[in-house]
Amino acid sequence: MSTDRRKYQYAEIREPSGDTAVDGGSQEKICDFLRKNWCLSVVVVLLVVVSAIAGELASRRAPITPEDIDINTKISYRMCQVYRHNNARVKVLQTSLGEPSVHWGEVPCVYYGRRMTTLFDGDQGHGEFDDPAEYVAPSAQINVDFDAGAVFPNRKKIYGFGGAFTEATALNYNTLPPEGKTTFMRLLFGKDGLGYSLGRVHMNSCDFSVKSYSFDETEDDFELDDFDDDVTHDVDSGMIELMVEADNYIRSSWATTSDIYALRLLVSPWSPPAWMKAPTPSDPEGSVHAEGMTGSAQPTCLRDGVGPDSKYAKAWALYFSKFLDAYRTQGLHVYGITVQNEPEFPAPWEACSYDPYTQGDFIANHLGPMLRQNHPLVKLFMFDHNKDHAPHWANYLLNSSNPASEYIDGTAIHWYAGGMDRLLDGAVGSPNMHRLVSNLDKMNVNPNHIIFGSEACHCPTTGYAGGDLKVAWARAERYAHTVLADLAAGSNGWIEWNLLLDSIGGPNHLGNLCDAPLLAVPYRAKGAKGVNTTANFEKAGHPFGRVVGDGRTRDELNALGFSALFLDEGIIVQPMYHYMGHISRHVRPGSVAVPAIVDSVKNAKFARTFRRQGRPVAGGGINDLARVGVEVTLWPCEGSTRQEWKFNEDGQFEVFGHDWLGVPTTSCLGKVPDPNFEGLLLTNCDSDAGQFVIVPGPSDHTSVHIQLVNGGGMSVDSCMILKPLENNGGAYGPRGGAQVTIGSCNSVEANWAFDENSGEVRSKFFALKGGEVCMTTGWPFLQVGAFSTPLAPENKAVVVLNEAGESANFVLKDSGKIVLSTSIPAHSIQTILYN
């Protein structure tokens, strides 16, 4: 949102309004003029008739067909043309790196199609719509199918989007001037903001607190007689007030008593009080219990385990119940609670480890019965960690033979990749999301089972602090990609991490500084005097150097897209915010995902979205996913560098690119399927990479086999094969992200085509389901998500994301009918709305 948002006038034929009617005096003057100039009047009438006849003849001319167009014609940017059916208005909203100060701006469109003039009574205007004249010039065909309805008709609908009310968020909120606080609420929860309806809060402290704390520090207080029923810390820090205000703001903004427009709050514990925890590896030898709340013993942090007789596990389950009671007393009705934040990670901050077996025992023996008795309406979510192990946890915990399964209502998922490569966050695990949803169906899990993306953020530090707009923009693109991919796989909602941080991404008492869509900079508010650039709660210093954004003027920041209007109120609004708005503002609670895929060019075997026929190299700009750890998948061919492979002299499939900071990257296709993701990843171009030979395929000589020769203990009959997605690919369908793995050379999945000139590795496995697919690093540059949105003003929303460094032309078809043809600029996102 921006004060200089462009409001374009649609170039459409409009009926005159009552305000434009000619008054009586004007009519008399016109009649007098016509009586005195009757010859001229006759000429005018004849011209009108001739023009109408000519228009009718022109409308009957042979339509322009794809075959009439030179496929080599390069159209760098196409005007938005709407092919209107039933006179429905189409709105195209855009945010683009090319115009970073314009957010959610409306793109001008013209309406195309015959509109016949009515000359006689009873003559009805009508018209059919021809294909766009530029249809087969390098162009994508985006196919959505609203007639098909929800992809997951038996599952819960989308609940919405939101973020976390951490202590860091509350402290930063309280540094804002009064007008800044009002703007914060409007930006995140209002109708003209993101319209957030989900929230998350930590039970006890987390790393985004200023220090560790709990609500009962009395050792061996098994009945929790000393539990702070007033949750004084959360009141004094401002967390409670902030959540109550957000809930009230949501309810008043959307003017409904329905719970669908209230704050649905998810609670997650990071650690029990230290006296409940077993000593950690870093504690002194002989310690009776953990010295503090940071770190964790394994396989569980609790002192005497999670068996039915564990006093500490029972006390910890009671702690959950008393916390929920305390929050209800404060006016907050918690929607759901997770068993543990990131149970697989004995983190250097507050932590409590579980594996699936110990978490299952804790649920079955203690937490499940406690919640069932005292808080039966509160939903219990399992896991709350990364996608790599989500299917494994679900297969164990949700199996009907597991006594924990009857208490579990949902699964919480984080977007992180694990390890220390933060540029992989949000980039891996999509096939596992499909696998998770598929397994729910196979195990006959209640279709009301909810899946939330419960945490996501970029680290380290903030885009504003780093000062590189391209990096901040890349972070926004990764947000949008992951949200669209998760919803396509069957997720019911998405919750980012901190709603508000300071300029460097804190406070965090372990120095784990991260980014957020909104940043508090009260010292830059209009009229601010004597306000320090660093709040008294921020102790991290500047571990990543000076804050580059602070060195820029108000006008410079505004030109870069950090709106001066909000800067004047002490708030930095980053690109992530605007990209999220293209989804959350329109995909309202109650929406459902419908089939959508970006397909290859129509009737053009060798032309691609980013590479016209005859172009010697792939387009789309430099590949920023050519890095170790990225999954290799299959998508409709787009002719981009994300689908360009070099078969090098060592028999390796190699890709090139650079990361967000411009550092060159080279990686190769691996040889061993990842045990967690079940497909091949990119790896270093050394002994970890697969070495292949390309040999003739079946007897028809139309395909080849790509045989692995350094598989070690693998069978000599080992070839690269296609692995279809489970869940039938969700909203993307089977061609939207199938995996690449190693398998039998005798399978039909082992048939490929490799073009050394284009670098494409293609498969026709899905030929009967839409066409061939190309081997891709991660995902394509051009992506789409489509949603039926019954509670929004327009009930159809199509989100188009272009991560490429080049613009892309596309034609949008809904259930086979053309909606519009247009272009999306480089590094841009569009939301197309219509009824």
Provide tags for this entry:
single chain; six-stranded mixed β-sheet; 835 residues; transmembrane helix; alpha/beta; membrane; Ricin_B-like_lectins; disordered N terminus; signal
Can you put this structure into words, describing what you see?
The strands form 7 sheets. This protein has an 8-stranded parallel β-barrel, surrounded by 4 helices. A 6-stranded mixed sheet has the order 4-1-34-33-5-18, with no helix packed on it. It contains 15 helices and 35 strands. Helix content is 21%, strand content 21%. The protein has 2 domains: 160-591, Glycosidases (TIM Barrel, Alpha-Beta Barrel), CATH 3.20.20; 595-783, Trefoil (Acidic Fibroblast Growth Factor, subunit A). The chain has 835 residues and is of the alpha/beta class.
Average of the residue pLDDT scores: 88
At the third CATH level, what is the topology name of the largest domain?
Answer: TIM Barrel
Q: Point out poorly predicted stretches.
A: 1-31, 39-75, 114-136
Describe the biggest sheet? Answer: 8 strands, parallel, barrel
Total count of helical runs of at least 4 residues: 15
Radius of gyration: 29 Å
Shape annotation: globular
Q: What is the percent of helical residues?
A: 10-25%
CATH superfamily of the largest domain: Glycosidases
State the end-to-end CA separation.
Answer: 23 Å
Number of strands: 35
Going across the biggest sheet, name each strand in turn.
6-7-8-9-10-11-12-13
Domain count: the total is 2
CATH architecture of the largest domain: Alpha-Beta Barrel
> Which range does the strand content fall in?
15-25%
What CATH first level of the largest domain would be assigned? Alpha Beta
Broad structural category: alpha/beta
